[in-house]
Design goal:
With 70 residues, the chain is mainly β. The protein contains no helices and 4 strands. It is flat and about 40 Å long.
Length: 70
């Protein structure tokens, strides 16, 4: 899954979109997509205290958002 040689395969995840919220301590919120499964994740990073987290993105019905990676 995680290769030591970056030439062997492209990055597993890509950033679909991102936004900075300066009013919250310069928080970055991004949607990451797993290239192998299509699963979308919400990633947050708070620059002011170097903390963050990641969780699957859910739709309004509580289902994981999955992109077609066909």
């Amino acid at each position: 899954m995680f290769s030591r040689n970056k030439e062997e395969r492209p990055n597993r995840f890509y950033e679909k979109s991102s936004e900075y919220l300066p009013e919250t301590g310069n928080t970055k919120i991004a949607i990451l997509v797993d290239r192998e499964t299509g699963v979308n994740y919400v990633y947050t990073w708070i620059v002011s205290n170097s903390s963050g987290g990641i969780t699957p993105l859910l739709d309004r019905n509580g289902n994981v958002v999955v992109d077609d990676i066909g």
